[in-house]
Amino acid sequence: MAAADDTTAAEDDGWVVGWLFHAGEAGQTAGEAGEAAGGRSQWVVLDARTMAEVARLSLRHHLPYALHGQWVPQYLGPPLPR
User: Mean pLDDT for the chain?
Assistant: First the structure.
């Protein structure tokens, strides 16, 4: 993801984002890993310049490998409490 003001930002000014899946031991199915080792997904944010971890969000479950998303400039969710 590019920095918010990409008109003056350096080429590597932004973040690298992605999903991690923590499976179980070798030879386990995803379902078995989910039961035995937690089988959970994490959303990780890295600084694009240094590749240092900036943030990590742990979910209570795993996300399917075929999950896709789209970035939009505005919030599209339900109204936020004020």
Answer: 75
